[in-house]
Specification:
Blueprint (H helix, E strand, L loop, with lengths): L5 E5 L4 H17 L2 E8 L3 E4 L2 E4 L6 H13 L6 E7 L2 H11 L4 E6 L4 H7 L2 H8 L4 E5 H10 L2 H7 L1
Parallel strand pairs: 1-2, 1-6, 2-5, 6-7
Antiparallel strand pairs: 3-4
């Protein structure tokens, strides 16, 4: 098995991401790895006359960073690094995975299908295709249904 020293966890603060964070934190603790928490803020598009452009962001970098640090505080035995960046989420996740370098990416996925996936795209799919390291995607509905039954391992083995 490859050593895991750095785990990247991109988050949008959704239920899917929080469940994936718990798994990422457990893996980091068990492997003695550092956990990099990442929030990518998409650039807003605005229309200027005849073309598109980007507007100045109105998000609070320091408040997002503080929120990431609060998430990391839930696992005090794991070294945490929090990052907030602007850009296309899928592109920035892959870029940071290369920059650190990361040994594993653990991320939540919404599990959209059909038209929803076509219209919304899939950040997780792009990351799985282009990441320089293994990617573990976690679908909240699969995890929560397994926890309700008390058989998460049996459900995973059946797939």
């Amino acid at each position: 098995m490859l050593p895991i020293r750095t785990i990247l966890h991109p988050t949008d603060f959704s239920e899917h991401s929080l469940i994936a964070l718990r798994l990422a934190g457990s893996l980091a603790r068990d492997h003695g790895a550092r956990l990099v928490l990442l929030r990518v803020v998409p650039l807003p598009l605005t229309i200027f006359g005849e073309g598109l452009g980007t507007a100045e962001p109105e998000w609070g970098h320091s408040s997002l960073l503080h929120r990431l640090e609060e998430l990391g505080a839930e696992n005090p035995q794991v070294p945490i690094e929090a990052r907030v960046v602007e850009g296309d989420p899928a592109t920035e996740i892959v870029r940071l995975a290369e920059e650190f370098p990361c040994d594993l990416i653990v991320m939540g996925t919404h599990g959209r299908h059909g038209l929803g996936r076509l219209l919304m795209g899939s950040v997780a799919e792009h990351v799985v295709r282009w990441a320089p390291c293994p990617v573990l995607t976690v679908r909240a509905s699969a995890v929560s249904s397994g926890l309700e039954k008390g058989s998460a391992h049996q459900e995973a083995a059946a797939r």
